[in-house]
Design a protein that fits this description.
Peroxisomal Thiolase, Chain A, domain 1; single chain; 7 helices; alpha/beta; two-stranded antiparallel ribbon; about 290 residues; 2 domains
Length: about 290
């Protein structure tokens, strides 16, 4: 379902505010059912189908919008879809079909925090070449159907799907973006403390945190403190890897019909990488939350 952004009453009174470094013009999430190993008879066909689904989501949400960078980020996408193999070419060809520009690059290096490092690269380009538009898709669907990805003691049950973001990126002397790393054993606590400090600089923005089971969520919130939160979707969506904060934002905007014009989003990777960003929401932004499988 698509929903227009709803404004707070005072939002229209600030037309002279400086443009944000990261402004979301479109945001969507589509849940995808996970395959079982016995259902994957042809990996090439599975790669093609997944690529076509990502392309469909892009077209549905972004249409023919101008794009300067087109990137796919993932935690669990098969390396055979990332390494230039025959399966990988079927995936990238399908993703890029009828796209405003071919897929520029893909990354799984930073796992769930990959979107933060993609933002950093786009901001670095904007600092040299001026404002640009980023199309980012977070694709976390296991083409093999491996049972490993279905659940983990660290994150509980998993969720699979595709997030699509269209983001205007502008040069900024001090962009509201943090990409750091902590020892995996203390990363949840460190992220909580870092979020508390970051959110203190953006007191009007609600915070989206990763979807974790109750014990990990409690440990994270101890560090975060009394910060207004966007909805938790762990019970409905499971841990959905790098899509967690974007689903949380969509739940606040589409289902709660929130009037947010900005938000703080965050993700934590199993290996301790974490990303935090303050994003603005365009007045005419489009949102889509598709939860059927």
């Amino acid at each position: 379902m698509l929903a227009p952004l709803q404004h707070r009453d005072h939002a229209a009174a600030a037309p002279d505010a400086p443009a944000a470094a990261l402004t979301v013009r479109a945001l969507g999430y589509r849940r995808v059912r996970s395959s079982r190993p016995d259902e994957v008879a042809d990996l090439g066909a599975a790669a093609d189908a997944l690529g076509r689904l990502a392309a469909s989501e892009r077209e549905h949400l972004c249409g023919d919008a101008h794009v300067d960078d087109y990137v796919v980020s993932s935690t669990i996408l098969s390396m055979l879809l990332l390494n230039g193999s025959a399966c990988g070419r079927r995936f990238t060809d399908a993703v890029s079909h009828a796209a405003p520009r071919p897929l520029d690059w893909m990354t799984c290096s930073y796992e769930c925090a990959g979107w933060g490092y993609v933002f950093a690269r786009s901001l670095a380009k904007a600092a040299v070449d001026g404002p640009r538009t980023l199309l980012l898709q977070i694709v976390d669907v296991d083409a093999h159907g491996f049972s490993y990805w279905h659940a983990n003691p660290m994150w509980g049950g998993s969720g699979f799907g595709i997030s699509t973001l269209l983001v205007d990126v502008r040069p900024a002397d001090a962009a509201p973006l943090v990409n750091e790393a902590a020892h995996p054993g203390s990363a949840v606590v460190q992220l909580g403390r870092r979020l508390r400090a970051f959110c203190a600089e953006h007191p009007d923005a609600r915070l989206a945190i990763p979807f974790f089971p109750a014990p990990s969520r409690r440990a994270l919130l101890v560090g975060v403190g009394r910060v207004p939160l966007l909805p938790d979707g762990h019970q409905r969506f499971g841990h959905s890897f790098g899509s967690d904060p974007w689903i949380s934002l969509l739940l606040g905007l589409v289902e709660e019909r929130g009037a947010d014009t900005e938000a703080v989003v965050s993700s934590l990777a199993l290996n301790g990488y974490y990303s935090i960003a303050r994003i603005a929401l365009a007045a005419d932004a489009r949102f889509s939350l598709e939860v059927s499988t």
